[in-house]
Design a protein that fits this description.
85% helix; single chain; two-stranded antiparallel sheet; 410 residues; mainly alpha
Length: 410
């Protein structure tokens, strides 16, 4: 066999063993990540806080404020805003929660009556399912089966307790991790850049900046849009006099951090509460309000807030959410869309620069979708800008006239 053949065999063998090594390393890392999974959710939320506060901290640094002090001021500003929001909303939510607890007996009676009417309409006997004496008798007759079932439920309760512990850990650790990440971000950036080979350093920095830009736009945009949706939902339900309007609006706003989820859940909750309150027309109006909020969000709010975003189709977003939920649960749902956007930027850059021969700038322009605000908002902005220019020009002319000694009385 020729030396060239031996060399080819050696290269292919090295490639195969390298691939096997990477697969084995990936498997080990996945196992380790599974063992320390409690830390990933706090890290994800800490990363979101960093992306949210980093522009503010950078502004403080540009004003020659030391970075530790800038990070502290950023956290204090956000904490103050949250405190003011809580000062307004918490008392109302407490009253609504107390009202909900007081209405539980009536709610049970309404559900009981609704099921009875439904059964009577279709000739189905529902008394055994709703009668407390029948339920007690069934429990006595099936005590052994119920015991084994409760044993399996106990395992599920353990999972719930672990999930609650993870949530508490996330709330406690995320701000601390975010603070130290903000302090060390520049140092990590410089050290990470130094580890990249010089031949590809500029390209890696360019792609990393695009990924960071996309993630920052997504986090800040989603948070602002969720806030607007929560306020609009609460106000709309308050105008309709729907019970628990603030709780439903807050839930819709919070769930709007996950694309497509917030308005759907909010509409379902509002309609259910209105129907249980016996007002079908209000339920219809509540659904229509959430439909209108969704349309305004898609065609007005999001184009204004996120004027530059990664071009992901709704189908890709839904598939990413499904895959993220199946792989990593809540954490997967939260990071599915930004992770998909990051993968699209990296893969798209490599494809367009390596295969299609495009420049870095052309690849970047292809990845990001530039959205323009509606025509009325653009016209309003144009009139405001023109008014500011006219005011500035008029003020400048008046200043020159007053200071000119050649003018009479000057």
């Amino acid at each position: 066999m020729s030396p060239i053949g031996n060399d080819s065999i050696w290269r292919y063998g090295a490639l195969v063993w390298t691939a096997i090594g990477f697969i084995a390393l990936g498997w080990v890392l996945i196992r380790i990540a599974g063992e320390v999974r409690i830390i990933w959710l706090p890290l994800a939320f800490a990363g979101g806080i960093v992306l949210l506060l980093n522009p503010l901290v950078g502004w403080f640094v540009s004003k020659r404020v030391p970075r530790p002090l800038g990070a502290t001021l950023g956290f204090l500003i956000v904490a103050g805003i949250l405190f003011l929001i809580g000062l307004v909303t918490v008392p109302i939510m407490q009253d609504q929660v107390a009202e909900f607890a007081a209405s539980l007996p009536d709610l049970y009676a309404q559900i009981n009556q609704a099921l009875s009417d439904f059964g009577a309409r279709f000739g189905i006997e529902t008394g055994l399912l709703l009668d407390t004496e029948a339920i007690s008798q069934w429990l006595q007759e099936n005590s052994e089966a119920l015991s084994s079932y409760l044993g399996s439920v106990g395992e599920g309760a353990g999972a719930v307790i672990r999930g609650f512990a993870e949530a508490v850990t996330m709330l406690a650790l995320a701000p601390i991790l975010a603070f130290y990440m903000l302090l060390d971000s520049e140092r990590w950036k410089s050290k990470g850049t130094a580890l990249v080979p010089e031949s590809i350093r500029a390209e890696v920095v360019h792609v990393a900046s695009q990924v960071t830009r996309a993630l920052s736009l997504f986090v800040r945009g989603q948070l602002l849009v969720a806030t607007i949706v929560g306020i609009a939902s609460s106000v709309g339900l308050w105008l309709l006099d729907v019970p628990f309007w603030l709780i439903i609006g807050m839930i819709a706003g919070a769930l709007n951090l996950i694309p497509f989820v917030g308005p759907v859940v909010g509409a379902a909750l509002a309609a259910a509460v209105a129907l249980l309150d016996g007002d079908v027309l209000t339920a219809v109006w509540a659904v229509l309000i959430f439909v209108a909020i969704q349309q305004v969000d898609n065609h007005v709010i999001t184009p204004v807030v996120q004027r530059s975003r990664v071009n992901l189709s709704p189908l890709v977003i839904v598939l990413a959410l499904i895959v993220g939920a199946s792989v990593a649960g809540l954490l997967g749902v939260l990071i599915a869309v930004p992770a998909t956007a990051a993968i699209r930027i990296i893969a798209g850059h490599l494809w367009r620069t390596r295969v299609l021969g495009e420049s870095w700038q052309e690849a970047t322009e292809a990845m990001f979708e530039q959205t323009e605000p509606p025509e009325r908002i653009r016209n309003l902005r144009r009139r405001i800008d023109e008014g500011q220019h006219r005011l500035f020009d008029t003020g400048e002319q008046r200043t020159v006239t007053l200071d000119d000694p050649s003018e009479p009385g000057g």
